[in-house]
Amino acid sequence: MRVFLDISTPLTAAGVVAEGLAQHLHKNRLQEYAQRSGVGLPVYHSFNEGFAHAPRFKATARVGRVTYTSRLTFPHRKEAEQNVARVQSH
Questions:
Q1: Which CATH architecture has domain 13-89?
Q2: Longest dimension (CA), the chain
Q3: Which of 24, 26, 39, 87 to pair with 79, CA 20 to 30 A apart?
């Protein structure tokens, strides 16, 4: 599911919700891809590259024999995992 927003019109609450959901579907899509391909479920590892008081997370996802790594750092582990799943799909 892709959600496109027209910036010339005001955002509705439904548009905000749809955009938020689209940002959180990358892990689901990666899992579905892995299951269809028969390579097993993705395995995620997150690591902090920041400080304890200001964490910056990166993540890796191993799918079959291939490992993908997020390019950016994020303040939350879940964001890093979503990003690495998105990296795999592009």
A1: 2-Layer Sandwich (3.30)
A2: 45
A3: 39
